[in-house]
Amino acid sequence: MSDSDSFIEEVNDELRRDRLFGAIRRYGWIVVLVVLAIVAGATWNEYSKARAAASAQAFGDAILAALENDSAGDRIAALQQIETDDAGQVALIGFIASSEAAAEGDDSAGAADLLANVGGEGLNPIYQQLATFKRLMLETDSMEPADRREGFRQLAAPGAPLRLLAEEQIALTYVEEGDNEKALETLQSIQADAEATQGLQQRTSQLIVALGGTPAEAG
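and the corresponding structure tokens:
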């Protein structure tokens, strides 16, 4: 390579370096911001995960501590003092407290009342439906069969997850009223449903026999 060619190559290298440094001075701050944003995002994500895990553990520990009380009343009171972060935690406490009250056997109305707060924005609708179902079950002694039947009918809409269980309870309300014909009709409809579980099929068969009917033969 001649001296002139070497000189030209050196000049080109210098120009390229000058352009690179100029670009870094002009746009380098953008690169820095992008890197900082990525690092901050990853840090916040890890912090959020750790915070959520710690909150869930603290919530679980509080429930276990509440359930260590000797009496149902004390356990329920302790459960109701637990701080909650979302509607899901409120629902869980409601279900546990209601079960504690129902286990006493003499306060079905109180057990039903403890489910009143189950609900809220962001909560899966199944929790609200479960609360309604359990509340209707607990109010057997305080609510007329026809009124409970209307409540169960709302849970027996096509596609509803508790549809068949609600239908079973509807049949039992007819039994309470002495209307065995409608009870049998409802029970036989459950038996014919392809989504009925084996346990539900067995229960409906037993009820049909008890009411003087003939259960469907297993397919």
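(Above: one complete record from the training split.) The chain is about 75% helix and 0% strand.
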